[in-house]
Amino acid sequence: QPLAIFVIPLLITATLGSWRQTAIVGLVVCTVSLVEGLLQDELDGAGLAARMMIIVVTTCAGTVGAFERERRQRVIEESQSRRLVLDMLQDSLVPAPVPPPTVVVSVRYVPGDERLLLGGDFFEAIALPTGALGYIIGDVCGQGPRAAAFGAAVRSGWKALATVCPDEPLRWVHGLEDTFFRLGRHDDSYVTLNTGLVQLDVRHWRFVCAGHPWPIMITDDAATMVAPRVGPPLGVGIRSGWNESHETLPQDATVLLYTDGLTENAAPGARRDHDGERRLLDYLDLTRTSFDIDSLLAEFGPHGFHDDVAVMAVAAASIP
Predict the structure, then answer these.
(1) Mapping DSSP to helix (H, G, I), strand (E, B) and coil, where does residue 95 land?
(2) Is residue 201 a contact partner of residue 133, using CB atoms and an 8 Å limit?
């Protein structure tokens, strides 16, 4: 019989079946081929041996190929399963601001690592028991899962502190420094942040800046950078130097807070300036009456961002 009659079933089984099925089919084909060759006597000894050699080699190759295909499929399925769990975990950690009804908080987050939903930057905004808005935006030095986990921990710690001490931003900063660096976790990274509270009923804004980029106040007349009393980042070994800054908010003011990934973008195709903050201020000054976070991100990261980027805009609600 033509050799293809014996080889084709092997190839089909190796392609569609398991390695065990391929080995069984190969054994059956070898037996049938040997018996058929002996009974029909259509091949001499050398021809039959050559046929059997080809079938045996095909069986071995098909079995090994099917085994490798199954192994790779298991690896892919396990990887997809881990990815699903990771995405679900990260999705549960992505903060959803819950401001007071008189405040609108708009946020955007762009992780520098495309494999993650979260990165080292973090933010949170909540309605405090006093009725004011409490917020935090910060940046953990580094990227990847480790920085993301640390940022999520700092954000959760801040939320607990802000809820217990709703009128003391300075105490929040000292509490985070003690909890994550002095008394507890000793990490080889550091954290910059801006945290404070906004009381729109009295148009008052109190905040503490720990080595973080200066915030910007946008009004219908101008976009101006707010010069805070800057203290050191958390985790650098300096456990003092933080002070509260106080600002009066105009009626039409929007407070813009961001991380340095926005102004120091090194992604391909992004414009690189020696003074990214000045460029940001100029852009906001031109678009102050039509400010939009998505347009801002498109302007500064037309092809994505090299580092994590977090942006938060705080304004009074049009309808209480």
Answers:
(1) coil
(2) no
CA dist 29 and 57 (Å) reads: 12
* Rounded CA separation 145/180 (Å): 17
DSSP string, 234-303: BTSS------EEEEEPPTT-EEEEE-TTTTS--STT----S-HHHHHHHHHHHSGGG--HHHHHHHH-BT
pLDDT at 119 over 90: no
CA distance 57 to 71: 21
pTM: 0.72
- Residue reference for tokens 């217990």: 164
pLDDT in tens, 71-84: 998 888 888 877 77
The sign of the CA dihedral 308, 314, 318, 320 is positive
Backbone angles phi, psi at 97, to 5 degrees: -55, 140
- Assess contact for 96 and 113: CB atoms under 8 A: no
- Whole-number Cα distances in Å, 107 to 17, 44, 94, 98, 185: 51, 81, 11, 11, 29
